[in-house]
Amino acid sequence: EDQALESAGRLNKFIVAQFLTVEMTIAREIIKSTVDYRKYKCIELANGLRCMLISSLKRGESVEDQALESAEGYECEEIAEESDGVDDMDDMDVEDECSSQKLRRSAAALCIHVGSFADPIEAQGLAHFLEHMVFMGSEKYPRENDFDDYVSQRGGSSNACTDGEYTMFYFDIQWQHFKASLDRFANFFIAPLLSQSCVDRELEAVHSEFELAKADDHCRTEHLLTSIAKENSPYRIFSYGNRKSLKENPAAAGTDVYHLLREFQLRYYSAPLMTLAVEAKDTLENLENLVTEIFKDMPNRGNKPFDLSVFREPFDMSSFNKLYKVCPVKETVSLSFTWTLPPMHAHYKACPLKLLGCIVGHEGKGSLVAYLRAQNLAVELVAGTATSNDLQHNHMNSLFKISIELSEVGRKSPNTVASLVFSYLRMLREAAAFSLQDPKADTLPTGRRSFSSLVPEYQKLYEAQFRFQEPFDPCDTVQYIAHAMLTSAPEEVYTNGTLITEPDLKLYVDVINLLSPDRANIELILPEFAQEATSDATYLTEPWFDIKFKAEAISEDQLKVWRNPPVVSEFHLPEVNRYIATNFDLLPACDNQKVPQDLNLQPGREASRKFGRLWHQQQTKFNVPIAHVITSLRSNLPRCPKNKALLKLLAASLDQRLQTLAYAATEANLSFSISGSRGCLTIHVSGFNEKLLLLYQEIVLLIVAPVTGSESGLELDAKKFATFKDRLRQRTCNKVLNPADYNSHIRQYFSHENKPLVEDFMKALQTLQLEDFQAFVPAFLSTLYMKTYAYGNLSQTEAEAFFDFTVKTLNTTPNPSIVEPSLPAYPAHVNHIRVMNFNKQDVNTCLALVAPLPDTPSEDLRLEVLVNLFASCLTEPAFAYLRTVETLGYVVSLYSWLLRSTRQAGVTLLVCSQANKFETSRVAGRMYAFWFRIIPHIILRLKPDAFATAVSSCIASNQLDDTTMDVELRRNKKEILSDRPIFDRRERTVEILRSLSLKDLQDFYRSTLYNSEKQPLLMVQVDATSGVASNTNASTDCSSSCALKTFDWPVTALPVTSTQLGDEQTSAQSVDLPKALTSCAAGLILQPENPTTLDLPPPPAVVPIEDARVFKSTVLFPSANPTAC
């Protein structure tokens, strides 16, 4: 207690919130940021459950205000956020209609002090499996999916996760539904059903989740490291679980998995092993009464947590200190160094892992990665410990890691890279040792900065960042606190491992000394090892992920070289940070603006107006001295594949060169990003406003700096250009090797007139040379249309300074023309395209049924509002039927969307499945069954109260205040960059929603999505060849079969045969409709058991797309002119 108070006084910048514990009944203080207005109280119930209560009522607000708003239709919450895949190569033009809203909802998280490390060896993955099973009902609420249905229908969301030492369950929802949701939530742990009838279905979800991880190189290599731990170590547990570990192996051994599941739950799901955090717009007193009443029956079984202290030093150096050559599934090219350290939890006040990670991972002058980049050996480096990841930070050990993404030169010279790593670590070790001997010295004998002078600077950086940390979203807050309470005193949940309150030079030196070559695990991941493994019998196969790898001893001669390497003269500790802010004053709140204003429309700005628009919004209501400036530079160059590739190369080269030039800014709570998409180069800077213009000017000056021939050390030559080009190729291939991203790419290609296929993009990229880049940059900058959005703690004059500096420095010609994008003209039937997963050994498939609304964008937003309401009624039924009942796959979603560029709206039904479980014709048929047979019954027979709940949910999502700066920024940024800004979109949406009746929704459905004569559909299938219709693993070789280092990625539409179409129709028609409706919509519709009351029209024809390019050019955009560079 005294230490917490002393720490708070010493920082002199943190305000505190008081709480009491039931048992000790003494005042303590929780250290939090100055802008965190919430009140906290920690209690411990009689059963041993520890709870953090968080009241998010602001000054002047009351519970009565919340109740009044609820009575006015302020009822439900936003639709759970979804996205249309992640496809950087395709610029991601899709956004969820409600995704801009992160509302201050009520939330709860319960963390259990047990995870996969406690799994029994005979049923590995059991903790993860139990996490899935818990959500399947309780004795008080026995209906399967009752909780999910209740939360989803009221606009909330829920999820869970399992790590090594803990399992987390959480949800968020609107305040007035919080009590009922919390009661349902609590009963999962008071008396879960764990119904045996759900076992097989949830096991399929677990297996599907594993198959997704199996195709992810990060998951694979993380698992490989744990697999070399000592034989009895919990690290050796296969934490994901799959059919083999949870069904086949136990069955062969005569083990009853269901019995183990029950036993595990009874042993560890006990109140003293749990921490609970709840946040709501309610008083602390009310929250305490609520939590006490609901959780008082949580059983205390008297068990202790799984003890990991007996498993200290989990690795044997004889197997750990080796070079591991690993075959990736994608084109991953990396060299990683991992050290096992003692557990570091006890040293949280010194933050050794965070501090050393910042120093080793620094990217400015003198850093390891800056030198590697200068020598063209690497492109990225990440260092440190992910303290939130139990595999890296647990009570057995802590892992410190340096991961390097190699260049083409580096992949051929891994020993050179390794030698440089140990050279840098020697420099760091000697600098730290000198400071330990002479802590007051600011410089080393070499004249460079000392280690001891660096520590106070990082202290100040961490304190400034913490001081103005905005409150997290409620769902993130409760998860963070519930997890932190497992190992932190309640008053230190925010500062534990965040602030250096007790620097310890000796500890830092001790940790650095452990980063020696004799203790390093070195992992080299190269695609070419897959070919090597076919003829080298010394390659082994990890049994769960089928990872091909080879372990080689590091010779004593090599270790001698690495133990005492020469220190590269360019290596030194980070220089004094010139970006550290000292002025944190806020502008007058009376000058804040509700919406952005275009300053270039004001008198006196006529000369600037021709260059574009300057949107300004002073905003200090969040009480942080932070600002954002986003500038979009749109060129008039043709949007062809060649220029698209060159623009992405320009953005990538600028971003990497800036890392060396301005990395210190990112450590001073400033950030920058540069992206190139849709013909625009976009700059985004943010952070403490005092030094923001300085950072922005560095970026703009670099844009106009000579590409070659300068002496800055940041210029490009042919070799560095080739590195950027190869990295773009790698990242593009790794995207399309993911079937969900590949599916998204196909959909994006059809939606946008100027978007190229990956095949055409890669062919254009292959031909590019440095000379093309040198010619492109001035051509791109010669004629521009600018949009700048200055937001936050910036005055009008300061905003104008950003815009005017850009115009003056770029010295460009105005480009006033804005071409309205065209909409695709889909025919009114199911346009069906089928392509094959590029990774021939990946069993994952992805199918998307897309319904674009041809009459959007509408003038009054009515259609957009209706389609969003339509999706909100169907999100949970789609999940319940396609995932829970049909068990098609782990990823199932139905969501509405709005394209940023064209503002066209629509709906997508997405399912990711596995070919070793279901034929795609089976999956597609079930999707058609839901779309053409189940949805009509839900919408056309929807209960009035279900409709009212959906409407209230959408209203609430558009009425609540923004919770952070980022939320308001994202919403207005989308409007500004869309060319059709509607800043009162939420208000207009609410007005429309309040006017809607159930008949309006049904009429909308009948005239659009239900109308097969008018409504077009697109079915995109990414199929897989591996292990079709098999229940065994597809292959023991999970490496990609695509040619290595190739630019050849042909997108070929596979034949959609009459047999396949017949199988899809059979799959759709074989669904037992009464049973399906009862399982997914029993509470939503009238008489779900009697679907014959609705006469459904026949489904539309399915017409295969035989050639993607021909279909796009002759059907979707027939009047488009071919784009030539």
TrEMBL record:
Top-level taxon: Eukaryota
Record keyword Protease present: yes
A GO MF label: metal ion binding
Peptidase M16 C-terminal domain ranges (all copies): 261-430, 768-914
Cross-referenced InterPro entries: Metalloenz_LuxS/M16, Pept_M16_N, Pept_M16_Zn_BS, Peptidase_M16, Peptidase_M16_C, Peptidase_M16_M
Family indicated by similarity: Belongs to the peptidase M16 family.
Protein name: Nardilysin
Species this chain originates from: Schistocephalus solidus (Tapeworm)
